[in-house]
């Protein structure tokens, strides 16, 4: 053609279809995404509206039953187990240990040999003392003979002086000789007595070379070995400690001054030791010391209280630390409530809950609180006190009722009800949990 140009364009049909398909898929994907977002918002708003419109769940109250039982007032203290009687055995004389016949934990009878000293020096001392005694006896005989001779001379001089045969000077000399002989005889007798005492002392020392048990018991400590030298010049050195029969022991407690007024002789007690977990041992208060045991800079004052302990099984040992509980007073078959009931306050909600109920005595109840005016201020301010007023809450006919009571003794778990509109079998509230 002369006047124009014809352009032929060839388009692939498959390419066109592919482009159109991609556009459609993108549009569908956007619709699905935005639709999901809108649906999620709608569902969320619906659930929130439903939750706001739903009434709050009724509270669940945890209860326990008012019953009768014993309430024990107790005093707690810690202390140390000791043998009823411990005797220290020492060496009464100086010397060198020759033998040791016992060891720790050995049982001994009174008179049993514990140890012996080297007897050589003691035997020598006894022999020497006996020799000195023999010499003293001879001296007594000599002095007596001299005295007899002086007596004869004096008597003769006196007779002759009476006749005027001898001068007065000779008589005076005879009398002086007689007096000297008497003094010498007296001295000889004293020396003999002293020598006899030394012999007995040497025999006693030899006997003390054998160290024996003074009582029946168990050897707790031994601090000597063969060959050791002991010196008893100032004080008898301690060689052994023997505990009297460990089937009966004592527990020394430090009772605080705030509690000592409630502790008396004859009260029963029980205690535990770490060596026997889960095991409880019985005891009896034997003595409460009048003088304080400790008064330190922290102003803590305790009084030593001694408990008698039966240890027939011999499970307990001296030195064990014990945690004891003394039964100060028992309130038998009194009306009582769980102490948790005194702590419950519905105005605090879950803050006052948390106690575990007795499955046999109580349970969980979902009940509405009784409508009406708020509790009087006097009631809401009542605090649980020993021998004072307190406020508990009771479920009656499915409603929560506040009941003022007068409380007495408490053992921690239970508290005595001395007065108030509570009866055995009432369900007192001890805790609260939010309902579903």
From TrEMBL:
Q: Which residues form a coiled coil?
A: 171-200
Q: Which Gene3D superfamilies match?
A: 2.40.30.170, 2.40.50.100
Tagged with keyword Transmembrane helix: yes
Per UniProt, subcellular location reads as: Cell envelope
Any keyword Coiled coil? Answer: yes
Which part of the chain is the Multidrug resistance protein MdtA-like barrel-sandwich hybrid domain? 85-235
Q: Which InterPro entries match?
A: Beta-barrel_RND_2 (IPR058792), MdtA-like_BSH (IPR058625), RND_pump_MFP (IPR006143), UPF0194_transport (IPR050465)
Chain spans, region Disordered? 346-380
For this chain, one GO molecular function annotation is: transmembrane transporter activity
Membrane-spanning segments: 31-50
Q: Which Pfam families match?
A: Beta-barrel_RND_2, BSH_RND
Q: Which residue numbers delimit the CusB-like beta-barrel domain?
A: 253-328
Query: Which terms are listed as keywords in the entry?
Result: Coiled coil, Membrane, Transmembrane, Transmembrane helix
Record's GO cellular component terms? cell envelope; membrane
Q: Which family does it belong to?
A: Belongs to the membrane fusion protein (MFP) (TC 8.A.1) family.
Q: Which NCBIfam families match?
A: RND_mfp
For this entry, the protein name equals Macrolide export protein MacA
| Organism of this sequence | Enhygromyxa salina
């Amino acid at each position: 053609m002369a006047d124009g140009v014809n352009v032929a364009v060839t388009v692939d049909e498959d390419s066109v279809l592919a482009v159109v398909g991609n556009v459609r898929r993108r549009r569908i994907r956007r619709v699905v995404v935005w639709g999901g977002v809108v649906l999620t918002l709608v569902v969320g708003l619906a659930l929130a509206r439903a939750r706001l419109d739903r009434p709050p769940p009724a509270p669940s109250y945890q209860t326990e039953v008012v019953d009768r039982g014993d309430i024990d007032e107790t005093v707690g203290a810690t202390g140390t187990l000791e043998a009823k009687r411990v005797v220290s055995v020492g060496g009464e004389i100086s010397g060198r240990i020759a033998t040791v016949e016992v060891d720790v934990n050995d049982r001994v009878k009174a008179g049993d040999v514990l140890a012996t000293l080297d007897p050589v020096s003691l035997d020598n001392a006894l022999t020497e003392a006996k020799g000195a005694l023999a010499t003293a006896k001879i001296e007594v005989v000599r002095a007596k003979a001299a005295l007899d001779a002086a007596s004869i001379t004096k008597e003769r001089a006196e007779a002759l002086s009476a006749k005027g045969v001898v001068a007065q000077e000779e008589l005076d000399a005879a009398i002086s000789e007689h007096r000297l002989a008497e003094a010498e005889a007296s001295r000889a007798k004293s020396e003999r007595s002293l020598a006899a005492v030394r012999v007995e002392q040497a025999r006693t020392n030899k006997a003390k070379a054998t160290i024996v048990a003074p009582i029946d018991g168990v050897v707790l400590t031994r601090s000597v070995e063969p060959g050791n030298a002991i010196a008893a010049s100032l004080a008898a050195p301690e060689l052994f400690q023997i505990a009297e029969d460990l089937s009966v022991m004592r527990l020394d407690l430090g009772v605080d001054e705030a509690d000592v007024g409630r502790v008396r002789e004859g009260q029963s007690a029980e205690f535990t030791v770490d060596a026997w977990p889960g095991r409880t041992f019985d005891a009896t208060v034997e003595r409460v010391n009048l003088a304080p045991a400790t008064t330190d800079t922290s102003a803590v004052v305790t009084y030593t209280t001694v408990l008698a302990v039966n240890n027939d099984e011999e499970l307990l040992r001296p030195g064990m630390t014990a945690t004891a509980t003394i039964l100060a007073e028992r309130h038998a078959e009194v009306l009582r409530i769980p102490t948790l009931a005194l702590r419950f306050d519905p105005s605090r909600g879950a803050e006052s809950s948390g106690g575990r109920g007795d499955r046999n005595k109580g349970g969980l109840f979902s009940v509405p609180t009784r409508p009406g005016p708020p509790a009087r201020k006097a009631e809401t301010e009542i605090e649980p006190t020993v021998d004072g007023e307190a406020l508990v809450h009771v479920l009656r006919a499915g409603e929560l009722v506040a009941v003022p009571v007068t409380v007495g003794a408490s053992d921690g778990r239970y508290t005595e009800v001395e007065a108030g509109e509570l009866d055995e079998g009432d369900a007192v509230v001890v805790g609260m949990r939010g309902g579903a």
